[in-house]
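=== RUN LOG ===
request id: a7f3
mode: sequence -> structure
chains: 1
length: 502
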Amino acid sequence: MITAKEIKVVDKNSDYYGIPPNLLMENAGFGVSEFINKNFKKNKKIVVICGTGNNGGDGLVAARHLSKNYIVTVLLVGMPKDIKTKISKQNFSKLKKTNVKIIFSIEKIEKILEENEVIIDSMLGIGLTGNLREPYAKIVNKINKIKNKIIISVDIPTGLGTNNFVKPNYTITFHDKKIGMNKKNCGEIIIVDIGVPKKAIEYIGPGELSVYYPRPKKESHKGENGRLLIIGGGPYYGAPALASFAAQRTGVDLIYVAVPKKVAKAITSYSPLLIKPIRLAKNIAKISPTLIVKELNHNDHIVIEDLKNIELIINKIDALLIGPGLGSENATQKTIEKIIDLFIKHKKPIVVDADAIQVVGKKSEILEKGEIIVTPHTGEFKELTGVKLNNNLNDRKKNVEKWAKKLGITIVLKGPVDIISNGELTKLNDIHNVSMTVGGTGDVLAGIIAGLVSKKIDVFNAARIGVYINGAAGNIAYKKRSYGLIATDIIDEIPSVLNKYL
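=== RESULT ===
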């Protein structure tokens, strides 16, 4: 079974992977007509009641195909100008060239229902919220009162999920059953393959971003669109900086960066002398004043005394990213463990990256009961699980699924094909390029994912959206920079991806 939102994801990703919406609609409507052709005698009178959205568009296609063998009437719930989508408008235009009778008024709905032997409900599809509005509520009541008719719903019965829905003999649904469908409320369910490409199901695409990214509300205030804490730095200065800038570009309102003293000075400095390469330093200098940088106790690395500093801000943030640039000092590793435990107790989601992965690998029990994403490459996956992965994609996928389920976390395994799994759901990704092996791209990815988590997106969805944004931005940067791409180029292109698909 599949949810309404996931169907929208699949539809958008189908388009991305080569099967456009108009072809999916054509296949859907043809599938409805094929079922009727195979199961009912020719020349029956059929009325197709169409809404003004894409569910209605499916019905318009079905009516066009059915008109070759049946006496077909279409009742449009609205006027042609009310049809909402381009592809439905196109199919309405095609329908006018057939012998189908088209009616725009529901005043004689009882007569129309009585005159036809088969009633096709193609009014409203997935995604309905609240109760049915008029005139749909009235039409549904009339359909359910009619006797001795064959009632067929397209995709789902109109109103399903409310207290007033069409009660069909058959429901012809597309791709997969939708959540909530059963024989009692849908009659006999027939699943029609409408040509969704396999890759649109198994791999991520822009659909995840378009469907699940939370657009800021007009009335929202500073901090309501994500407050993220990044803990990192030590031997490496650039990693927490890159992660923080990537999170900013992903649309996070407030970002706290808690780092050792010398790292804090570097991140907030305007001097290119402190950070190499020069270009990276200049980019950091442009953005760093908008970060809330917290100097911790030690000059060079995270220590146990820093826990008190973290406790002071934990209620101010929505999510934690821990790991970028931390290093492997014993004191740092013990502190990481305590910090993760603290955030789990406060029920705050965590993204565990880079040097922090080794810590949770040694003490995996600290992951229990937490909303956690871990972002290993192949070597770090071994640190996390003890398993050395081979290069076979199916084997890698099985291992990621197994350990995600065993540890109760979401794993983002980075590789030639990325694997994202929470143990129940798994997605793959190959949207990236050869130049993205350059240092810092993993920090960018971690920052994007953590930023999305801070915006209160479900951790699995945040992981797959983040992987897509990172790869798509990297591909845009690659077209401009070729093999000279560096991590900040990817950050610069994040808004281009958001602008294209949101």
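=== NOTES ===
The chain has two domains: 4-202, 217-497.
Residues 459-481 form the longest helix (23 residues).
=== END ===
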